[in-house]
Amino acid sequence: MPHKDFPKNVLSAATDAPVCAELAGLRRRMASMLYESLLLLGVLSAAFVLPWMLALWLLDVRNPPPWLGWLELLHILAISGGYFVWYWHRHGQTLAMQTWRLKVVAAADGRNPSWQRAALRYMLSWPSVLLCGIGIVWALLDRDRLFLHDRLAKTRIVLLPPVKR
Question: What pTM was computed for the model?
Fold first, then answer.
């Protein structure tokens, strides 16, 4: 479902050679999000749960102060933010997106999003998902079927062609 304002030549994930890409369908993006949540559990287990369990055990914290919960939340947001922003900026794809042949691109030129645009997309995705999924439901009303955070961050998720072996 190409849109007239979207560049058709998007840089491939492996090379800088342009490939013809179209905007990805909603079902494929939702399946990728489900798979991404499973992968993120593994990332958070290694980078959040294990260090916090070890730290709380070593410090022998039996009654943690209330502010510790906020610190844990900030740690989760930082880990997941680092994961998503780094992959989106560096490769245009997370591991789950590679599986589903999806790529995040800047709407203006079809290239990987800048650090700032990837970070903005990440920050906007939280309210988009957590406020009863309003940003996801938005895609049903959007003319290009974009999630609200993609519309606001000026990014697109495109479907890459199958890899030739």
Answer: 0.81
